[in-house]
User: Fold these one by one.
Assistant:
Number 1:
Amino acid sequence: MKPLRGNRIESDNHSHILAASIESMTTAAKKKGLEQFSITEHISQFKGARESIEFSSFHTKGRVFHSLDEYRSEFEKVKPAPDFRLKMGLEVDFISRFQKQIGDFVNQRSWDILLCSVHELSDRKDIEANINSDPRSTERRWREYVEIEIEALESDYIPFDVLTHPVRLFGGIGDFPRDEIGGLLSDLARSARRHSKALELNGKDLEINERLVEQLARAAAKEGCQVSFGSDAHLPTQIMENSPQAANLIERFGLELKF
Ligand SMILES: [Zn+2]
Ligand SMILES: [Zn+2]
């Protein structure tokens, strides 16, 4: 187990360079005293992937890379520094019917870190778009969301390390089933442990609903699965955002950090 030093997290394992340069992001990460910093661009920001995979959820603005190699060469712009490890990664959608195409795209190269995320439901609804919902469909949607996440954890389409923002559906629904959520998140955490994947304590999720992330942390503790912190920063100022709340949850529930 990697202990927290003075109740402080020292790695941010989820960030993007579609809106800010790699130099500005890494300079900010170094200034914040991070030991490890991962840049994990969405695969939907790559021309080839966008052309062959129907993403229901992607950024309409921001940099689009022509190739994986163009993206990878960005990392050469960063001067190495002692006690600072920059990881080259990707945030990879799990879309059941495109597993093969996504796997073929990502697995062309090897990566320091891979994050897996579920951004859409099976009817292709973006989890963060306004999803009209009454209490009964809220329950159904959450069940469906967690089922897809478990399918992702059980899939070997890419060798990923972390399931990202596992409770982000709240962003689209604005509600969760109070009675059922504990059981659903326990199922998720059990599957993550079984497949040696970490669940992410995500800075944006913490911002949207801290209580829900607390439920996730409780489930991770109960089932003994590892966690990872990722701010999901798109701008230098967002790096490590809400990490103190994540650190508190890690201490309080005695969670184990994967990185
Ligand atoms: Zn995401
Ligand atoms: Zn992200």
Note: Residues 91, 117, 119, 164-165 surround zinc ion (ligand 1) (CB under 6 Å).
Number 2:
Amino acid sequence: VKKIRLYLGPRSYNILVGRGLIKDCGRLIKKLRIGKDAVVITNRAIHGLYKRNLKESLENAGLRARFELVPDSEKAKSLKILTSLLCRLAAADKASSVFIIALGGGVVGDLAGFVASVYKRGIPYVQIPTTLLSQVDSAIGGKVAVDLPAAKNLAGAFYQPKLVISDTSFLTTLSRRQIASGLAEIIKYAVIGDANLFSYLERNYRKIFNGHPGALEHIISRCASIKARIVERDEFDKKNLRIALNYGHTIGHALEAASGYAGSYNHGEAVAIGIAAANRIAVRLGFFKGTAADRVERLIKNCSLPTKIKRLKVDQIYRALMHDKKFIHGKNRFVLPVRIGKIRVFEGLPPKMVKDAIRECM
Ligand SMILES: NC(=O)c1ccc[n+]([C@@H]2O[C@H](COP(=O)([O-])OP(=O)(O)OC[C@H]3O[C@@H](n4cnc5c(N)ncnc54)[C@H](O)[C@@H]3O)[C@@H](O)[C@H]2O)c1
Ligand SMILES: [Zn+2]
């Protein structure tokens, strides 16, 4: 088991990565002394797969567990489901020692974390991420939210968990497409901050798809510590450091928005194309070598991820881009690589350059 500590003074917590950790959940959570009554927020699919193990582990440690199910899709991250969960919590809450466990991918994690942040002005919660994407990214760092009709993640908070438990054996029941989606974020981490991780991925991507426990533990703990170090320095996203995590996401989000969120791309696929496009901009600017961009694209393709945009027009994507939260007064802002392992933030790039780079990815 690997342990990464995220240091935030009184809000510090551990991120544990290892195979079979679900059996230890009860003991690990009990040690936190955050209460005796766990409300586990999850969805039907994950409940079917992992409820028994988790319930048993919690009860063996003397904790009580109640399961609350939410729909299985981004639709769960809505005000409607948030309200319903808060009311269900209040109706059953006789004890003052209630806390929340988020058992699931990024959807469940973002929603359950937000519920924890507002119920009684904040109760403790634990993240038990079950997808590769949530283990390397969404379960860490305390950004919790639901979507509004106007945009994704528009109502939310910064609210840190008390513990993150990443059991790599959950990943054995994920589809190849979901593993690939997580790999897009992992490639992001490698390019923004870890050239060794990048070469490791080039050599070992097959092991990840085959569920090799050692390889999974290695890459998940590496990514968790890269994210932890960034979050420690910029918990509230005020110092322009967390923006590094948005590499590949500017154009990626625009693709998701332009194609409709339940559209042709899942998040990781959109990010993979966003990475390829960002690299093309960096090459055009003369800051990133064409050979390095090719190397990243080769890895993306080897990970069964797309690098090309289908069925969308350049102007459609550019229009979606202009709505990006990180653009100030319509001035664009991009996180671009200068070499594998190092990025820089660029502002106010000529629209034509951005559009040409997008066109190159069609
Ligand atoms: N808070 C953050 O910092 C942050 C960062 C990145 C992404 N996100 C959010 O994360 C969400 C995406 O997360 P995701 O990719 O994990 O998607 P997801 O939560 O929708 O999970 C993907 C699918 O896998 C299923 N699933 C989960 N675990 C499984 C398992 N072990 N075996 C089989 N099936 C399983 C789920 O039921 C779902 O159908 C988005 O809403 C995004 O906005 C948040
Ligand atoms: Zn992402």
Note: Residues 43, 45-46, 49, 72, 74, 77, 104-108, 110, 130-131, 133-134, 137-138, 141, 143, 152-153, 170, 173-174, 178, 181, 267 surround nicotinamide-adenine-dinucleotide (ligand 1) (CB under 6 Å).
